[in-house]
Design goal:
The chain has 62 residues and is mainly beta. 10% of the residues lie in helices and 42% in strands. It has a single domain, classed as Ribosomal Protein L24e, Chain: T (Roll), CATH 2.30.170. The two termini are 21 Å apart.
């Protein structure tokens, strides 16, 4: 679910390092919203879109 339908942006994984240099796994989640958008045929559909695609105008909201 946490993946953009337009650009494919999803979660990123890495290692969190504390001040004492203890390492643990970390996940960064993308800012994904469920929006109702206008499709090419003129209909409406709910899809998951990241906020970067919403701001850039790649998706037209209904």
């Amino acid at each position: 679910m946490a993946k953009c339908s337009v650009c494919g942006k999803g979660a990123h994984f890495g290692i969190k390092v504390s001040h004492s240099h203890r390492r643990s796994n970390k996940m960064w989640k993308s800012n994904i919203k469920r929006v109702k958008c206008v499709m090419e045929g003129g209909g409406h559909k709910r899809i998951y879109v990241c906020t970067a695609c919403l701001r850039s105008g790649k998706v037209e909201r209904a």
